[in-house]
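stage 2 :: seqdesign
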C-alpha cells in the first residue's frame, strides 16, 4: 500500500542511517526481517492492537522476538509502539532492503518469461544489466506461460515488456 510506504520510508531511512553508523547493516536486516514476519501475521497484529497500552504492545513484540533484537532493535520497537506503526513494519523492511542494495551498489531485477531461463540466459542477462547499470545484479525469475514468448523485465520502477502477448494485444488494439 502506497500510504504505508509513505509512513515507512522515514523510519527505514532513520534505521538505515543508524545501521551504517554502527556498521550493523546485516544485523538490522535480520532484525527487521524477523519483525516483518511477526507483524505480517494478522492475528498477532490484532493482538498488538488490542493491547492495553503501546508499552504492552511493544513488550509483546519484543518478547516474541526474544534474543533476535539487540538494544537498538528493542528501542526501535518501542518507538513503533508509541505511534502504533506495527502494520508498516513489512514496508520498513522492504525500504531498508532497497536502501541496503543501493548502498551496496546492487540492482535488483526480476524477469518474467514464457519459459524457464537457462543458466546461460541468466548469466548473459546479468552481464548485460551489470554493464548497463554499472552495478552488481540480483536476478529473480518466474515463468508465465500466458506471455507466449519473450519476457518482461522489471528493475525498480522501470519495466521493459518484450512479451509476445503484449505485442499481440497491441496489434489487436491497432487493428480495431
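stage 2 :: out
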Amino acid at each position: 500500500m502506497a500510504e504505508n510506504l509513505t509512513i515507512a520510508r522515514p523510519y527505514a531511512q532513520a534505521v538505515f542511517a543508524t545501521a551504517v553508523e554502527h556498521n550493523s547493516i546485516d544485523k538490522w536486516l535480520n532484525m527487521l526481517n524477523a519483525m516483518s514476519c511477526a507483524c505480517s501475521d494478522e492475528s498477532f497484529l490484532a493482538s498488538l492492537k488490542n493491547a492495553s497500552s503501546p508499552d504492552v504492545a511493544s513488550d509483546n513484540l519484543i518478547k516474541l522476538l526474544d534474543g533476535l533484537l539487540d538494544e537498538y532493535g528493542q528501542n526501535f520497537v518501542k518507538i513503533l509502539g508509541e505511534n502504533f506503526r506495527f502494520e508498516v513494519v513489512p514496508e520498513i523492511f522492504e525500504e531498508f532492503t532497497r536502501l541496503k542494495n543501493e548502498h551496496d551498489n546492487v540492482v535488483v531485477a526480476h524477469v518474467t518469461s514464457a519459459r524457464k531461463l537457462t543458466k546461460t540466459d541468466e548469466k548473459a542477462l546479468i552481464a548485460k544489466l551489470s554493464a548497463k547499470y554499472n552495478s552488481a545484479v540480483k536476478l529473480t525469475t518466474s515463468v508465465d506461460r500466458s506471455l507466449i514468448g519473450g519476457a518482461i523485465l522489471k528493475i525498480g520502477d522501470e519495466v521493459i515488456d518484450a512479451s509476445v502477448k503484449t505485442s499481440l494485444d497491441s496489434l489487436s488494439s491497432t487493428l480495431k
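stage 3 :: structure notes
- The helical segments are 2-21, 25-39, 42-49, 54-64, 71-82, 89-103, 119-133, 164-175.
- DSSP finds eight helices and four strands in the chain.
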